[in-house]
Amino acid sequence: MAKAKAKKVTPLMLQYNNIKNKYPDALLLFRVGDFYETFGEDAKIAAKILGIVLTKRGAGSESETALAGFPHHSLNTYLPKLVKAGKRVAICDQLEDPKLTKTIVKRGVTELITPGVSLNDEVLQSKSNNFLAALHFGKKRIGISFLDVSTGEFITSQGNKDYIDKLLQNFSPSEVLIQKNCKSDFNTHFGSQYYTFYLDDWIFQEDASKEMLTQHFKVKSLKGYGVEDLNEGIVASGVILHYLSETQHHKLEHISNIQRLVENDFVWMDRFTIRNLELYQANTPGAVTLLDVIDHTISPMGGRLLKRWLALPLKNIEDIKNRHDIVRFFIQNEAFLQSQNEQIDQISDLERLVSKVATGKINPREVVLLKNSLESLIPIKENALKSSHESLISLVEGIDPLQELITKISLTLEEDAPVNINKGNAIRNGINQELDDLRHISNSGKEYLDHIVKREIERTQISSLKIAFNNVFGYYIEVRNTHRDKVPEDWIRKQTLVSAERYITEELKEYETKILGAQEKISGIEQQIYGDLLESILPFILGIQKNARVIAQLDCLGSFAKVAVLNNYIRPVVDESTLIEINNGRHPVIEKQLPTGEQYVANDVILNRDQQQIIMITGPNMSGKSAILRQTALIVLLAQIGSYVPAQNARLGIVDKIFTRVGASDNISMGESTFMVEMNETANILNNLSERSLILLDEIGRGTSTYDGISIAWAIAEYLHEHPAKSKTLFATHYHELNDMSETFERIKNFNVSVKELKDKVIFIRKLVPGGSKHSFGIHVAKLAGMPGPVLHRANKMLSHLEKSHASEDIQAKLKSASEKNLQLSFINLDDPLLEEIKEEILSTEIDNLTPIDALMKLNEIKRMLTKNK
Hints:
The structure is a single chain. This protein is 44% helix and 17% strand. It is of the alpha/beta class. Strand 24, helix 24 (706-722) and strand 25 (728-732) form a beta-alpha-beta unit. The termini are far apart.
């Protein structure tokens, strides 16, 4: 059998194939002349995403291949579309001038852009970070690191899978790097909603990562950053730097710090809580989030920081009070805040400008914006220092306008500098003498040519003589045929036209060489001066970033003040107690959605660990039970990020964890029923609660049968009441049988969301009042929903029949009987002699006098008692 004929490959395609083989996972944009081309499968994908024409190269020949391209100057138009479509894009540029080589132009990939690694303004969102994350699965812990290459923010931490899950939810990375052998682990623990990229396992090495980090930061150890002991976190951080190197990002001076995220510094909220409270991501399209309501920031830096504050509420009382103090000052000094906001409005996105400086991607106009932004810092600092407000002064002392840099940029660049340095006229006169001289030559060209025309007319008496220019033979003198006999002998004829002839002279050729050389030299000198300017900015990067952080904080606190005034929020009292006392609290999001003129019904909520630990809230559907639960959590959350809160008064003891189990959240796509998801979330709460926890439970047990549901809800409420932590809990339920718990458990109190019953309808008053509700009013809700009349009529008859048979009283009687017969939940159920013996052993132990060693010995003794009796 004859061998198949090998497909003929051109030198260009051979070069393309060699480069493409190095980046098989990326779309390769291959620079050919003035176009970026894509070939083969890449071309088909690009044409579909970008809506450009798909054609063929070498159509009909052996080397035929699909082709799609666009002009190189349109890169910033098309590149974002590819990245937003989730594609990795390798940009392959010409590395030499085609005019200077007789063989094929040398080409190479100059940048690999991925969803998590992009500096393009069209890809990035101004008020959101674009985080790249890396995970390292250690033996006991998981390390995680986040980097926004567009701002230089570099964060690391480590912990169990629940903590890492929470961080992934909070930071919402655009791309996650994982070692190849941990693919299934990642999907099992964290789902498949993230854009992931898998790296070889050998990259995840602690020694190599530590070396990469110390070399990058130019330090001998990582102790100064407080991450020295984060072994898994260090690996994750090193992997990110490795990835940046692999994607051809080598200029990283703006990544000047790595921050340790300490788990215990912030309020714990698991993924369910973040989702249920809709802090910054809506569960339904078009829904309003808490961030939407409280974000009145002016700068992109403030917008990004506010989102971070919302994800990581503080636990340190002094830090919270400092924020509240500044917010109060802003509210009391409206003119001051107005002036500050006007200045912040003049400040560009310093963090992203700095990253462009470091990577050499900043244009002259943006450098001028950087200078103007630094100038706007001066009045902000001066006014704050005059305020005599201690917390505010302490904050603004971190501002350094960097006057030396302002002066340098002012003296170097024109105020109206162009976007592209190649456009010219970016550099001021007086900076470089040679540049000034060349500009004079270039600008005086017309005068020089006019002088030649005037002189030659006088010499030759050819009145219609003119000088022009074309790309074929440069400057020339044109003479009409009627004056051809007057042409001097020293003119050289170059072209004959129908009615005229064109000539060149030695003088014109010399001038042409001089003028064209001047333009080229001007461009070269301007680029050199601009490059030197960018180099001189590099040492100021850290100072600019510090300024950006201060402005972001001022912007957030100013936003809190504006929201407080607009929405009538008050300053909460935050202290070390374990109380939650909210007077006339409101839901910050729902109150903004009410029709004009309608007032939100405010409610009081009082929780403590001594008298009113658990509030059992009953009431009909749609009456507002869930809103009361959520608003309590949101008020606590707002207080601990430093904001004022929607209430008349509020005293809030520091909360360290907020847990919610609110509403149905089916996970059927992963094979879990509503009830299974509900039980998973509730189990997570019960296994992680603390004495400062706030727990919100809504309709627990409704995913199963009535008897099952009531039993589970009862047992959970009892567990929370009997647990030593005595966590503060709001428990909304449609099981009215649970009202009986207050008779047995002293810290469980019954409340209901009141309604007004009329003859054939119910009016929802939405007021929380003491006492349990006896009816669910489900049929009234069905009527509001537009249920057909016959269905409602039949439902009413069935309800009447069931009420006469006392079905609900039977359940209540059984529950009450079970409680009275000492079936109450206990953390030690004694139903055999061995457990009785262990009980006596524990009770006779003087715990206060035990040393750690004694305690271990006692525990071992109890263990032996158990194993001996197996």
